[in-house]
Each structure stands twice: as structure tokens, then as C-alpha cells.
Design goal:
This protein is α/β, with parallel strands linked by helices. Helix content is 25%, strand content 37%. The two termini are 18 Å apart. Bound molecules: S-adenosylmethionine. S-adenosylmethionine binds next to strand 2. S-adenosylmethionine (SAM) binds next to strand 2.
Length: 195
Amino acid sequence: MSIFVPLCGKTEDMFWLYSRGHTVVGVDIAAIGLEQFLNGHNINFSKQKLEKIDGTLYTSEDGRLRLYACDLFKMTNEIESGFMGVYDRMSFAAININDRKKYIELVLSMCAPDCRFLLETVTYQSADYSPPPHSLEDSMVKEYFEGRCSFRKLDSIDALLNENRERIGAKKQDHLRDNLKAFDMRYNLFLLTCK
Ligand SMILES: C[S@@+](CC[C@H](N)C(=O)[O-])C[C@H]1O[C@@H](n2cnc3c(N)ncnc32)[C@H](O)[C@@H]1O
């Protein structure tokens, strides 16, 4: 299955997907993170300058992992398309609010019909926490994707509860509690199926 990971950073989830045999295409503006990801997993790759847009493409030897170091909004469905899956962990939540509609149009234009889109968002209250990521209520997610995708909430966890410390990561949870003074913080997971 070919899976798109917009604003991928160097998330380990890409390696998990790749090592299970999927084709993984990531886009992130920060080339250094992509190189760290590839080197960190001992993946041999080639590097080429993109022709139509400003950026660099890193391709694994087997071609199943393609990482684009470029501005996501410069990508087009002429460059990559036909994805059967989108893995969006805090990417839609991270972009500027004004770019949300553009983001949805772009990402969905790169997907095949019936593509499944896993979307993780966050909701929180905080005096000190400043986006990104932006807090996104479920109703807003539904509204943004209305008419384009069917919508199912899979999970929601309290990011600050001790019992979720391992899932969130101890260091990250401490950071949220102590530095950002976030409260009522929840991570939410949705499955969107493109129409
Ligand atoms: C919140 S992180 C995303 C985290 C990632 N999805 C994960 O699971 O770890 C945001 C990432 O988006 C990238 N980014 C921000 N704006 C971008 C843009 N316009 N085009 C491409 N990447 C962008 C940043 O370099 C950063 O790595």
C-alpha cells in the first residue's frame, strides 16, 4: 500500500510502515531531519534535486521510501498521487489555520478513491501553550472534511494522565505539564475515508 506522510519530520512511524512493506512518501521542509531519519535507520539512499519545484528528493535503494525536502504547498499530484493511505500525526494540526483548506485540497488530490486517512489531532486549554499544534475540536475536523470523507473517531486519550505516560512519552508529558501549563489536553485519532 502506498502511504503519504505530509509534514513527516523524522517520525519513527515512517520506518514502522516502511519495514512492513509499504511504500512511504514523506514531505518535510527540513532536509536535515530527513537525512537524520535515513542515516539513523541505515537506509541507503540517493539524493536528487527536484526539477519542477525547489527541493530535494531522497529515495531509498528499493524506491519504496521517498522523502521530499520541500514546501508541502509546492507539491502537486503530478509529482506524487494515487495514495491509498495518509498518515497525519499532528500535521493538519500544525499548519497555519489559513492554510487548512489548501492543505485538504492538496492532500486529497494526491489520494486514490477510498483512500484511508489517519488523522491525529489535539485539543487543549492553556494559558501559556501557543500553537502549533492548534487545538482542533472534533466538530471542526468534521466540518473541514465534510463532503470529502466519511468520518469516524477511533480513540481519544488524556495526554496528561499518568496511565498514558508511556504512550505520550515521559519527557513529553513532563514538558506539557510543567512548561506549557496545558490542561484538558487530549490526543484524538480519526479515520477518514475519502469519497
Ligand atoms: C508538528 S511537526 C509534524 C510532526 C510529524 N508529523 C510527526 O509525527 O512527528 C511539523 C513538521 O512540519 C514541517 N513543516 C512545517 N511547515 C511545512 C511546510 N510548509 N512544508 C513542509 N514541511 C513543513 C516542520 O519542518 C516539522 O518537521
